[in-house]
Each structure stands twice: as structure tokens, then as C-alpha cells.
């Protein structure tokens, strides 16, 4: 049996060339050698470990630099060296969507992607799909730096928005931000009877409704006099003196827009009882 003593050949280091801060990296050094080589590791010229495998501790920005593996054959008394650069970048630890103000229809609005850590690109998603701006539906939306601008924002922009911060390690997606655009009231309606006969019911129930977000505040009045009744419902006692025009005012507490609607309530007396007629057989 002939065994040729040789080596070590040029070593090879397996391991990531880039890592995020606080991560750990494992380097594996291998070299063809007879007998097997012994290995030593050096970082920026200082020895840090022995053995073919070297695992770093939690990385800091100071961990950036050159890692060298030295393979040594104690029979041939030869060594061979290889080096690998490790680049440390700040990890992305947080990605959040923030708005600059309350979203109100017809006002401008900006959503900003706030990222903690180093990133290379920012992209936007709406309702789990990439936000595409090259069509007429999104003609009022623009992107600059890490912000999404609505000029103005509309109810049709409602949806769940996310931003995606991407670095060398891949995408980091923010939690969903639900955009609900406040608007209105756009219209006010009153439902209820227009004519009531005394004695048929005790009250005439009037109901006011408005198309708005959030729900409008309501109050009632007649002849410019406010009534104590507030809220969308009002019960009017049936009497001749209560036959009048009633107005419901709906006000959106966020948009500060008010709109009103009137209804005319007529009250009449009971129908006369027809006289008794005898019947001859």
C-alpha cells in the first residue's frame, strides 16, 4: 500500500459573503491534503479559532472584514491560505405604513413607508397585489422616495396598503394599513308618514339617514328652531299643532360638512262616522 503524502491544496471557504447585524455566520474550510490538514482561522490578521468550521457570534458592524482560513499539513510542513470578505449591513427590523393626516375625500394624503434598517428599494401593494400606477384609475397617485401621494384621495382608494422594503436578504413586508376615506354627507333622506289621522296612531316616527363616513350626527328642527330630539329617530305626537315641516340636519364630525332634508307632516281629524241606516226587509 503506497500512500503519497501531499498537500494541503488551495483551501475553499463555504459561507455567506453578506450578513445582517445580530446574525451568526458559519464558515466551513476544506482542503485536499494527505494526511488531513489542521485549520486555523484569522480575522483581520488575528487568530480567532481552530478547526475546519468557524461560527461567529452575533455580528456587529465591527465584524465586517476579511476572514482567513489557513490549512496546515504537519507532515509536509506546508500550509495554504484562502480569505473571504464578510460584509455586515444593518438589519431591517421594522417596516410600517404611516399616514400624514386624517384621510378625507378631496384632500391630499400621503402614506409613508417607515423602515428601521438599511434597504435598497421600496415597493407598494394594495389588497395583496402590486400597486401599478400606469393606468387611468391611479392617475392621481404618485410615488416619490418612500411615500405614496394621493392628489386628492378618493373613496375609490379604499383598501389595504402595504409597503415592501427590500435589501440584499430579500423583501420585508409591512403590516396592512387599512385606508378608509372619510366623506360626506353626500345625501340625506327622511322616511316617515306624510299624512296621519288623529287617533290612528300615537306618534309619527320619522327616521333620518345620510350617506357619510363616519356616521353623521343628527338633530331636528322646525321653523329654524331646534328640537330637543337628537339622533336619527324622532317620534312626533299626533295632534293638529304638530302638523308642520320638520328638518333633519346631518353633520359629519370629521369632514365638518352638514346637509339637511325636510319633510311635511300633515295631521287630520278622524273621519266622520256614517249615520246609521235602517234596513227594511
Q: Quaternary status of these chains?
A: single chain
Uncertain spans: 275-281
Q: Name the CATH architecture of the largest domain.
A: Sandwich
Number of domains: 3
Cα(first) to Cα(last) distance is: 144 Å
What level of helicity do the residues show? Answer: under 10%
CATH superfamily of the largest domain: Immunoglobulins
How large a portion of the residues is in β-strands, by DSSP E? Answer: over 45%
- Counted by DSSP, the helix tally is 0
Brief sketch in words of this structure:
The protein is an all-beta fold and 281 residues long.
Give a verbal description of the structure.
The protein is mostly beta strands and 281 residues long. It folds into 3 domains: 78 residues, Immunoglobulin-like (Sandwich), CATH 2.60.40; 86 residues, Sandwich (Immunoglobulin-like); 81 residues, Sandwich (Immunoglobulin-like), CATH 2.60.40.10. Helices cover 0% and strands 51% of the residues. The chain has no helices and 25 strands. The strands form 6 sheets. The protein has a 5-stranded mixed sheet, with no helix packed on it. Strands 11, 12, 15, 16 and 17 form a 5-stranded antiparallel sheet that branches. A hairpin with a 2-residue loop joins β13 and β14. It is rod-shaped. The N and C termini lie far apart (144 Å). The C terminus is likely disordered.
Label this structure with key terms.
disordered C terminus; rod-shaped; Immunoglobulin-like; 3 domains; 281 residues; 25 strands
Amino acid at each position: 500500500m503506497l500512500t503519497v503524502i501531499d498537500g494541503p491544496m488551495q483551501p475553499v471557504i463555504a459561507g455567506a459573503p453578506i450578513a445582517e447585524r445580530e446574525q451568526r455566520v458559519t464558515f466551513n474550510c476544506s482542503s485536499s491534503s494527505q494526511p488531513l490538514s489542521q485549520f486555523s482561522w484569522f480575522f483581520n490578521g488575528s487568530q480567532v479559532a481552530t478547526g475546519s468550521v468557524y461560527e461567529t457570534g452575533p455580528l456587529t458592524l465591527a465584524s465586517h472584514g476579511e476572514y482567513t482560513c489557513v490549512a496546515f499539513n504537519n507532515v509536509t510542513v506546508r500550509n495554504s491560505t484562502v480569505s473571504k470578505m464578510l460584509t455586515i449591513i444593518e438589519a431591517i427590523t421594522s417596516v410600517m405604513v404611516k399616514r400624514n393626516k386624517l384621510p378625507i375625500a378631496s384632500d391630499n394624503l400621503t402614506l409613508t413607508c417607515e423602515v428601521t434598517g438599511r434597504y435598497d428599494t421600496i415597493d407598494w401593494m394594495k389588497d395583496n397585489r402590486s400597486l401599478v400606477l400606469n393606468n387611468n384609475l391611479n392617475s392621481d397617485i404618485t410615488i416619490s422616495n418612500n411615500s405614496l401621494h394621493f392628489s386628492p384621495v378618493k373613496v375609490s382608494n379604499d383598501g389595504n396598503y402595504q409597503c415592501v422594503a427590500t435589501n440584499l436578504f430579500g423583501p420585508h413586508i409591512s403590516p396592512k394599513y387599512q385606508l378608509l376615506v372619510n366623506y360626506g354627507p353626500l345625501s340625506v333622506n327622511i322616511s316617515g308618514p306624510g299624512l296621519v289621522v288623529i287617533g290612528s296612531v300615537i306618534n309619527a316616527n320619522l327616521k333620518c339617514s345620510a350617506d357619510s363616513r363616519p356616521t353623521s350626527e343628527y338633530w331636528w328642527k322646525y321653523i329654524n328652531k331646534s328640537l330637543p330630539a337628537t339622533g336619527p329617530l324622532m317620534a312626533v305626537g299626533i295632534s293638529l299643532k304638530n302638523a308642520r315641516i320638520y328638518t333633519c340636519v346631518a353633520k359629519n364630525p370629521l369632514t365638518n360638512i352638514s346637509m339637511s332634508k325636510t319633510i311635511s307632516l300633515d295631521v287630520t281629524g278622524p273621519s266622520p262616522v256614517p249615520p246609521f241606516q235602517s234596513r227594511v226587509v
